[in-house]
Amino acid sequence: MAIQNPPVSQTRSFSTVFLIEMWERFGFYGMQVLMVTYMMKKLGFADTKANLVWGAAAALIYATPAIGGWVGDKLIGTRRTMVIGALVLTLGYAMLWIPSNDPTLTYLSLGVIIVGNGFFKPNAGNLVRKIYEGDDVRIDSAFTIYYMAVNVGSMVSMTATPWIRDYVAQHYSDAMGWHTAFGSCAVGLALGLINYSLMHRTLAHIGSPADEQPVKASRALALLAASLVLVVVAAFILQSLLAAKICVYLAGIVILGIFFHLIRNAQKSERAGLIAALVLTVQTIFFFIFYAQMATSLNLFAQKNVNLSFDVFGTHLFNWIPEQYQNLNAIWIVILSPVLVAIYNTLGRAGKDPSVAAKFAFGFAAVALGFFMYGFGALSAVDGQVSSWTMIWGYGLYSLGELLVSGLGLAMIARYVPARMGGFMMGAYYVAVGISQYLGSVVANLAAMPENISSPVESLNIYVGLFNKLGFVGVGCTVIALVMLPLMNKLSRSHSEAHTPLPAVHSEEV
Q1: Using CA atoms, how far apart are residues 447 and 389, in angstroms rounded to an integer?
Q2: pLDDT for 370 beyond 60
Q3: Kind plus residue range of the DSSP H or E element containing 159
Q4: CATH number assigned to the domain comprising residue 181
Q5: What is the sign of the dihedral through the CA atoms of 324, 144, 435 and 478?
């Protein structure tokens, strides 16, 4: 907990966490933007296998923070765990830098990244909360800026790493291009760690009680051994699609079972909030199935069926690199976030701010329109290639939906789940999101390319078929969300009558 009269300002403490978070996201998104394409072009995976391997990795990346938060709070301290996570992530990206196309090394590298992310992600966010603990006026602004760090880091890296790959490949070799691009992720995070070492004194008074206690050698060795085991287990899951499938579906069954157990045994005043949280969590899982398309089917669509020339009124400005289209998500979020904040504030002052359930419905409608946009763009395709503008507007609508759904996920848990279950349910929510990431890769495989198809005209029909199906699923989700609105409003009223509303908790995975 932050002490009274801290020796440094909140702003300086916050800046330290902000900068290392920005560099950590630089590394993560720089790796993510290339990984599926790398597995196909350098490891020789079919698109179906590359999608599923990345889906399993994404599922584990979302699940491990539930463990890392506990390690920071109870075992070695929030600050220490965050720094260890950054070091482990740097090691994982550096392993991808090694000029080898051995799939086993890739699996192990991803396993290290999964463990590092588990240590880093929850503890960086916890430090921000602790810096502004008790300062309700400034914490919203702080998390808004913190969220911007995510998008600044991701925008820079998703632009830079595909360009680095192409530049180095052109001047040296294709293999060196891929591995140098991954290496830049390690270099970026190393710069973040150097910066942290220079500024770490600004966080000396912030952290969990465990930060103030020396770490016992036995505890450190046990944590190291557990981490190594987790790396090996993660690598095994990634290389075995059957193991990944079993783990994902078992996790889904366990989470549903936990929800029903909590609802059944909760006090009468708590049930309405828990039921509302369950309904909205299921809706969030459906959204993240759409979200998972960014690194899988939408990425591969850009490889085959998008005219990479960006033109305005017939004037050529520049060419995109296919992977860089994923960057449109972060760009649109930066553009749309202040617009939505202004709209929420205006409606709030008029007493007409929509409920979380209503925002979910609007979000699914926007996602549906976004996926239909690709089919609309296909109507004017030339030789099987759609305009870059099709991707821009499709990502814009999809990103608006993301802000309305994903941005409210953790806020929903904080609002409806009893405080005594809050920490556990936050972890369960992230595991649920991880499950949907894997399911998203399964959905992406509906557009798997048969080996005999190489013509963009033929592949366009396959991808557009998937995107139109996703659009109709989005329409279905919108209808269900609208039909559920009266029930959700009733549950929300019942919950509000029994509880004092909690402040929103911000999700950086917006």
Answers
A1: 22
A2: yes
A3: helix 136-171
A4: 1.20.1250.20
A5: negative
